[in-house]
Amino acid sequence: xxxxxxxxxxxxxxxxxxxxxxxxxxxxxxxxxxxxxxxxxxxxxxxxxxxxxxxxxxxxxxxxxxxxxxxxxxxxxxxxxxxxxxxxxxxxxxxxxxxxxxxxxxxxxxxxxxxxxxxxxxxxxxxxxxxxxxxxxxxxxxxxxxxxxxxxxxxxxxxxxxxxxxxxxxxxxxxxxxxxxxxxxxxxxxxxxxxxxxxxxxxxxxxxxxxxxxxxxxxxxxxxxxxxxxxxxxxxxxxxxxxxxxxxxxxxxxxxxxxxxxxxxxxxxxxxxxxxxxxxxxxxxxxxxxxxxxxxxxxxxxxxxxxxxxxxxxxxxxxxxxxxxxxxxxxxxxxxxxxxxxxxxxxxxxxxxxx
Length: 355
What we know:
The chain is an alpha/beta fold.
């Protein structure tokens, strides 16, 4: 025999289970709405489960705090099975049944959500956590299995149950993971910042206004330059820079700043407004701003980017703002050029061809 009968049997059961999950479309929608309302309202999510379900609780918390598939602001979620000192102290001094309920009482506030995972619906510490949450005004999202167990009757009208009506724990947990990912995809879509309506909306020269617009779009990437005549090297480097975070702010030297750089009496060729307008048309660039100083240091200190990037002709130690960004825990990168181009070389070729 060259194939595994175990795999074929598991796969057949999994396929049969998936065919029965259409009934969860409505509860999933309600769960999406409740989670988003909680997070938008400044609330948080507490997550708990036992064994493999503890892993599920940690999984959804990690996707929310960090990221799922796209970049968006970090969202507040806490997995309650991670702190060994807290868990063992509660189990030792009180009872194992209280390991989650005690934390809910300490951390939960009215309007928060409690996400519980129990394939049987009968775990004593999960039931205790739900009761503690209800006493404090939290709503419940219950990931259950089989017939919902003792947990299902505890739920109130404002709560949501995602019940996988299968008898095998393995199949229930597989469906719970699919539900987790579906909820995370919905949250990513809701948290996505609306795109600028016009190119001009991407150009913000007021640093205070810009700081407010990017406050929730982390990790924030920052780069700067003259960008007098845009070429392929610029476009490639900006594309790679954008991939390092959730938002790319590109700062452009003002016309006065360019003249002080000594690039030539006729530089910049294009005005600040024209240079910013062209850069705003790039999909990789989220916002374009400007600075009149010789360097963008004051702007960097205002925006406090998480990632500072320049092209490969800049050693990291020479990049303006590197010490500051590294000082607050950020990263500084020098992206190697994929295409050897330069504005000065292009201008020289143009001038050579003039009659």
